[in-house]
């Protein structure tokens, strides 16, 4: 009889970290979309900011899919990249 060793799943801390980062990125995307809309209503050019927000949103979607597939390291990298894009967007919208 062949024995198989169970593969270790992600550590609970790793899952919690991804969940927290996911919520941070989601909240920042929502907030910056609102901030960009206000800037647009004020007559400001928001094209650069919106490009970054849309790219961050795409990375966010990819990261949530990756996490659902158990690819936590890849998901974390994409979420961190999205956060950096959003931080730059925040600077643009000042």
Write the layout of secondary structure elements.
Elements: H1 12-41, H2 47-68, H3 72-92
Helix pairs in contact: 1-2, 1-3, 2-3
Give structural notes.
The protein has 94 residues and is mainly alpha-helical. The chain has one domain: Up-down Bundle (Substrate Binding Domain Of Dnak, Chain:A, Domain 2), CATH 1.20.1270. Helices cover 78% and strands 0% of the residues. It is built from three helices and no strands. It has helices at 12-41, 47-68, 72-92.
What's this entry about, in short?
With 94 residues, this protein is an all-alpha fold.
Give the overall pLDDT as a whole number. 92
Per the CATH scheme, the topology name is: Substrate Binding Domain Of Dnak, Chain:A, Domain 2
Q: What order do the SSEs take from the amino end to the carboxyl end, as H and E?
A: HHH
* Share of β-strand residues: under 5%
Q: Care to count the β-strands?
A: 0
How many helical elements?
3
- Going by helix content, strand content and strand pairing, the class is mainly alpha
Q: Span between N and C termini?
A: 66 Å
Task: Write the CATH architecture name.
Answer: Up-down Bundle
Sheet with most strands: none
Poorly predicted regions: none
How much helical structure, as a percent, in the residues? over 70%
> Overall 3D geometry?
elongated
Instruction: Return the domain count.
Output: 1
| Rg (C-alpha, Å) | 17 Å
Determine and state the CATH class. Mainly Alpha
């Amino acid at each position: 009889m062949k024995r198989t060793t169970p593969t270790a799943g992600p550590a609970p801390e790793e899952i919690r970290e991804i969940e927290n980062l996911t919520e941070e990125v989601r909240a920042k995307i929502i907030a910056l979309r609102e901030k960009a809309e206000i800037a647009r209503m004020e007559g400001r050019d928001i094209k650069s900011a919106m490009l970054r927000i849309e790219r961050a949103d795409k990375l966010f979607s990819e990261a949530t899919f990756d996490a659902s597939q158990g690819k936590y390291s890849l998901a974390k990298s994409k979420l961190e990249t999205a956060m950096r894009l959003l931080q730059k967007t925040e600077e643009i919208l000042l």
